């Protein structure tokens, strides 16, 4: 696998027309080895290979491969003991380069499946009745992020950070409408609140300018009201909820993070142009 990764890194563009064939041959081995192996180096090699294949389009060419891959990643991330990294006293997540690569891949695969309408939420071979058919993928991502923020909020934050220009406006409005009533003080621990704040921050920075200047509209099918006035109201309520929660319920690092990253929320509350805003670094990678 390491040799294949090196080859793809050096020659990937030259063989990109056959990346689908490569994925077709690799997929059975990936599914079998990922589930049975405890060798972290092998999984790291898989992550590298899959990341390259996403860029080359090979994963997308093989029917069902992206959903099957997401099933494997979901099971890994969904473990209650899974953590992306450790917090420092300034609220920055310290992640290994391997964890960073895994997070980038998880966000990319989630985005691929969400855009195609697939949840990818079950393991290969699960009975059909276990597959999620009702909840839209972007809605489900938010539910996962708020139900288990330590595991899933980083994935959604990274998805928005890396793929914001390819996310439908309906997803943005749903996320905001769901977040403005979320009780941040109910998070099980400060680290969970920090991850939710990063998700909110990425949403604020990536918020489409078209929605800031959107005409009043109401989608009868979904029940989503996307009027500019209502969206502004949601942003204000969300900002006040976060600041109030940080002041009264959590350590100073959460409050400090809220204030230092507050420029994006302020821009949304004041409906200022987002140009010039930078999402900043809410995590850093370290060598193992």
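^ structure tokens above, recovered residues below v
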């Amino acid at each position: 696998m390491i040799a294949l990764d090196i080859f793809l890194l050096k020659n990937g563009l030259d063989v990109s027309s056959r990346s689908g064939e490569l994925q077709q041959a690799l997929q059975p081995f990936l599914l079998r080895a990922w589930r049975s192996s405890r060798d972290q180096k092998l999984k790291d090699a898989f992550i590298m290979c899959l990341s390259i294949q996403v860029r080359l389009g090979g994963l997308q060419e093989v029917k069902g491969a992206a959903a099957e891959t997401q099933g494997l990643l979901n099971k890994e991330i969904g473990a209650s003991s899974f953590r992306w990294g450790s917090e420092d006293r300034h609220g920055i997540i310290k992640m290994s380069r391997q964890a960073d690569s895994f997070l980038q891949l998880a966000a990319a695969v989630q985005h691929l499946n969400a855009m195609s309408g697939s949840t990818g939420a079950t393991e290969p071979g699960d009975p059909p009745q276990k597959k999620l058919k009702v909840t839209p993928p972007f809605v489900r991502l938010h539910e996962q992020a708020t139900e288990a923020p330590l595991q899933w909020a980083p994935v959604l934050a990274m998805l928005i950070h890396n793929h914001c220009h390819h996310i439908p406006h309906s997803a943005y409005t749903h996320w905001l409408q769901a977040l403005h009533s979320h009780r941040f003080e109910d998070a099980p621990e400060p680290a969970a609140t920090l991850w939710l704040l990063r998700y909110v921050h990425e949403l604020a920075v990536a918020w489409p300018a078209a929605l800031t200047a959107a005409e009043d509209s109401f989608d009868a099918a979904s029940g989503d009201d996307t009027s500019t006035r209502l969206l502004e109201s949601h942003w204000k309520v969300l900002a006040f909820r976060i600041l109030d929660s940080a002041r009264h319920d959590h350590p100073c690092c959460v409050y400090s993070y809220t204030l230092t990253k507050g420029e994006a929320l302020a821009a949304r509350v004041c409906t200022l142009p987002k140009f010039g805003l930078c999402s900043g670094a809410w995590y850093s990678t370290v060598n193992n």
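The beta strands are 86-87, 93-96, 218-219, 224-225, 283-286.
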